[in-house]
From TrEMBL:
Species for this entry: Aspergillus campestris (strain IBT 28561)
UniProt keyword list: Acyltransferase, Hydrolase, Metal-binding, Protease, Signal, Transferase, Zinc
Lineage, broadest ranks: Eukaryota, Fungi, Dikarya, Ascomycota, Pezizomycotina
Residues in the signal sequence: 1-28
Official protein name in the record: Peptide hydrolase
Presence of keyword Transmembrane helix: no
Biological process, per Gene Ontology: proteolysis
Length: 400
């Protein structure tokens, strides 16, 4: 499982890959500069497992309908309300019985936080969606679910605040310049509830929050003449993080339509490491399918997870889950055991993931000019800008 990907870092191969990316016709997507990659804020003490402001409060049992779930819900909501006042927050509630609820409905609460250009009409704005589930599994008793998915929630929280000022700066510049009719994308974060099965995984016992949300967003209709007909169709990509925080992850590429974005993540990992901005070391890159073409990635629906109800309705999915291919247990060794706790997290890896998600979001939302170390002054030229003319531009055709 570990050896299959050796050699991916061969320099010639990297050059070929880079050329290949440059040659994709009409594709365009501005790479973030080295200067920005080196100056991104780190989570530092906020990821401390004992008293860190972001991660520690999530590291407790949070089974839907229990006080732990309410406490974590409040933590996430309060974070957005206090740290990210420009974000809109909404709770999506649903109820369902479960195999162990003895006929009593259990309440599931998805947390949806979004930020759009201030002039945008609801229905006219596509959004990058970052998603992780915040519930934890009922069994084993005391299960924490640190990689599953406390740490991914914290990674997203860090990414949200790290791009927030740049979003403000970008949209203010567009507004002042009168460019409010141009394409601008928003961002939406979903902290999903009820991902875990209560008894054993099945279509009915799993994905409680995601199934209810996908169904609602499919049937809800945006105002007449909207660019996007439903809230579901305004999802540019559904980027789901799950089972992240163990050392040396293996992230496979599952979907042809988003394989190009998967490659972007692989390129960012490579660049972070080359710039010595990653704390973790790894014997092999995290994204072993980066050198594959679309046609070489396996045709499957991937792994059962919160994306499935969205995938079935045609949403483009980027599933970032640590799962090896081949025989044997694909997930990290602590998966669904009592050992999936704070102490088993590899904190360097957790931090690095938060940087990678931040950089990816900044690239996707084209924030390079606004992410500079000086705090997003777009007229400040820094060293990184001189690379821009060599960077590839890609039009996100399939999403626009
Ligand atoms: C959804 O549930 C939350 C938390 O239980 C509650 O505060 C909120 O009012 C509910 N929202 C709606 C629209 O029912
Ligand atoms: C940005 O930097 C330029 C050049 O250093 C300066 O003239 C300008 O006032 C700055 N703008 C903001 C909004 O800080
Ligand atoms: Zn799980």
């Amino acid at each position: 499982m570990l050896s299959a990907t050796g050699g991916l870092y061969h320099p010639l191969l990297s050059i070929c890959l880079a050329l290949f990316l440059l040659l994709i016709p009409g594709e365009a997507y501005k790479d973030i500069s080295d200067a920005t990659l080196t100056s991104l804020p780190r989570p530092n003490g906020d990821f401390d497992i004992h008293n860190g402001a972001l991660l520690a409060p999530i590291l407790q049992p949070r089974v839907p309908g229990t006080p732990g779930a309410t406490a974590v819900l409040e933590h996430l909501v309060n974070y957005v309300r206090t740290t990210l006042p420009n974000w809109h927050i909404e709770l999506h509630n649903s109820t369902s019985t479960t195999p162990v609820s003895k006929g009593t409905p259990v309440k599931f609460v998805n947390i949806i936080a979004s930020r759009d250009p201030p002039w945008a009409n609801k229905g006219d704005i596509g959004r990058l969606n970052l998603v992780a589930h915040y519930d934890s599994k009922l069994e084993p008793t005391g299960f924490i679910g640190a990689i599953d998915s406390a740490a991914p929630c914290a990674m997203i929280m860090h990414a949200m605040r790290s791009i927030d000022a740049a979003l403000t700066a970008k949209w203010e510049k567009m507004r002042v310049a009168g460019h409010t009719l141009e394409d601008a994308e928003g961002i939406q974060v979903i902290f999903m509830d009820g991902e875990e099965a209560f008894q054993s995984w099945s279509d009915d016992d799993s994905l409680y929050g995601a199934r209810a949300l996908a169904e609602q967003w499919d049937s809800e209709v945006n105002p007449a003449l909207s660019t996007y007909k439903t809230p579901l169709s305004s999802i540019s990509v559904f980027m789901l993080l799950d089972l992240l925080g163990a050392k040396d992850p293996t992230i496979q590429s599952y979907f042809e339509a988003t394989h190009w974005a998967y490659k972007k993540l692989a390129a960012l990992e490579r660049r972070f490491r080359a710039l010595k901005q990653f704390k973790s070391t790894t014997p092999r890159p995290w994204f072993p399918d980066a050198a594959k073409s679309e046609s070489q990635i396996p045709k499957s629906l991937g792994i059962g997870d919160d994306h499935v109800p969205f995938l079935h309705r045609g949403v483009e999915i980027l599933h970032i889950i640590d799962a090896a291919s081949g025989s044997g247990m694909p997930f990290p060794a602590v998966w669904h055991t009592i050992d999936d706790d704070a102490e088993h997290l590899d904190m360097d890896t957790v931090e690095d993931w938060s940087m990678l998600v931040t950089a990816f979001a900044a690239e996707w939302l084209e924030l390079e000019e606004y992410m500079s170390a000086s705090g997003g002054n777009s007229s400040t030229k820094d060293a990184g800008h001189q690379n821009e003319k060599h960077s590839n531009w890609a039009r996100k055709t399939e999403f626009s």
